[in-house]
TrEMBL record:
<feature type="domain" description="STAS">
    <location>
        <begin position="10"/>
        <end position="100"/>
    </location>
</feature>
<dbReference type="InterPro" id="IPR036513">
    <property type="entry name" value="STAS_dom_sf"/>
</dbReference>
<dbReference type="Pfam" id="PF01740">
    <property type="entry name" value="STAS"/>
</dbReference>
<protein>
    <recommendedName>
        <fullName>STAS domain-containing protein</fullName>
    </recommendedName>
</protein>
<dbReference type="InterPro" id="IPR002645">
    <property type="entry name" value="STAS_dom"/>
</dbReference>
Length: 119
């Protein structure tokens, strides 16, 4: 876990996400996004993504939506393969690489600022 800015957090996962740790990943993200408005979930170093990985990612998505946290994920080949099956319409915010993920979050933050200043 690394704080990239005052309101932006990056959480990186290494290894496998499966039935043994998927729930813990969701809870970890939930516990650490309290003051963050943006989250980068870096799954580039995930070697295996079981079905519990999708459950964890979906849980994170719901948590972020409910708590007004803009988020994006960057995934390894196993994560992308899982999402192609479980999220065929591409509704989850998946970026090709870390640079594009950060750029998308920056654009989102600018849009939020523009909307707030217009109100």
């Amino acid at each position: 876990m690394r704080r990239l800015a005052a309101s932006r957090l990056a959480i990186a996962v290494i290894g496998d996400i499966d039935a043994g740790n998927g729930r813990e990943l969701g809870r970890f993200v939930e516990q650490h996004t309290g003051i963050s408005r943006q989250l980068v979930l870096d799954l580039r170093a995930v070697d295996f993504a079981g079905t519990q990985a999708f459950t964890a990612i979906y849980y994170i998505s719901v948590h972020c939506a409910r708590n007004d946290v803009d988020w994006i994920l960057v995934g390894s080949h196993p994560v992308r393969r899982l999402l192609s099956i479980c999220d065929p319409d591409g509704e989850l915010p998946l970026a090709d690489d870390l640079t594009s993920a950060l750029e998308r979050l920056t654009r989102t933050a600018r849009c939020h600022q523009h909307v707030r200043s217009a109100v």
